[in-house]
Amino acid sequence: MSVLSLFTVTCPRLMARAVSRMCATDVVVSFPGRDRTVALTFDDGPHEETTSRLLDVLAAHGAQATFFVIGERARQRPALLEQITAAGHELGNHLMRDEPSVLLSARQFDQQLSDVDDLLSAHGPVHFFRPGSGWFRPRMLRSGARLKYRCALGSIGLIASSYPQPAALAARLARRCRPGSIIVLHEGTSDRVGVVEVTDRLLRALDLVGLRAVTLSDLAAQGS
């Protein structure tokens, strides 16, 4: 894990506070005070092996999620986008390629954000973007605001991108969840197939403590 990724995983709240002082655009890492719900989000799809199986798991638990998709992968698999939205889940903009968005020039970032927005908006409204690797600059938030996006990161301790011990990881994530938390899991490649088991175990554990997984938009709307 790079220093950039490590900071992103461990310090999203510090990032949000620092940038919020400079920019009017909201950066969300949680929605405190929500009633027994959390937002479940998946990055880096869609992928034939992981996305379809995640949809089956979510359906089995009656859970909803937000899928932050990579544009070039989404363009290759439009049927999966249709399956996601048809099942009542939400799409989020994760830019065009799986790369740190902070390293893009302003022109490249704006173009990617706009191109993916065009791609996803055909499947319904898109309200959130998540920069690649989770790191951002204030100008990126302003670009998102022009498309009426909010920048959504993840809550502290609720981000996972590899799954060597699914049972232990799911239990740890469930213990850390609070009403209004945002969970970030990663799919999109064959070596991340463990995300399916983790999701299943996590949803079971959340149910035991009375927490329900919903989309980011549904979680945000509870405070409206």
In brief, what are we looking at here?
This protein is an alpha/beta fold and 224 residues long. The chain has helices at 3-10, 12-22, 51-61, 71-76, 78-86, 106-121, 138-146, 166-176, 194-208, 216-221; strands spanning 27-28, 37-45, 66-69, 90-93, 128-129, 150-152, 159-160, 182-186, 212-214.
Question: Which features characterize this protein?
Answer:
224 residues, alpha/beta, TIM Barrel, three-stranded parallel sheet, 10 helices, 9 strands, globular
Structural write-up:
This protein is an alpha/beta fold and 224 residues long. The chain has helices at residues 3-10, 12-22, 51-61, 71-76, 78-86, 106-121, 138-146, 166-176, 194-208, 216-221, and strands at residues 27-28, 37-45, 66-69, 90-93, 128-129, 150-152, 159-160, 182-186, 212-214. It has a single domain, classed as TIM Barrel (Alpha-Beta Barrel). The protein is built from 10 helices and 9 strands. Strands 2, 3, 4, 7, 8 and 9 form a 6-stranded parallel β-sheet that branches.
What Rg do the Cα atoms give? 16 Å
Record field, number of beta strands: 9
Structural class: alpha/beta
CATH architecture: Alpha-Beta Barrel
Tally of helical segments = 10
Q: Helicity, in percent?
A: 40-55%
CATH level-4 homologous superfamily: Glycoside hydrolase/deacetylase
Described by the principal axes of the CA atoms, the overall outline is globular
Strand-residue proportion: 15-25%
CATH topology: TIM Barrel
- CATH class membership: Alpha Beta
**Series of secondary-structure elements, N-terminal to C-terminal:** HHEEHEHHEHEHEEHEHEH
The average pLDDT value, as a whole number, equals 91
End-to-end distance: 37 Å
The main sheet comes to: 6 strands, parallel
- Which segments are poorly predicted (pLDDT under 50) over 5 or more consecutive residues? 1-10, 18-25
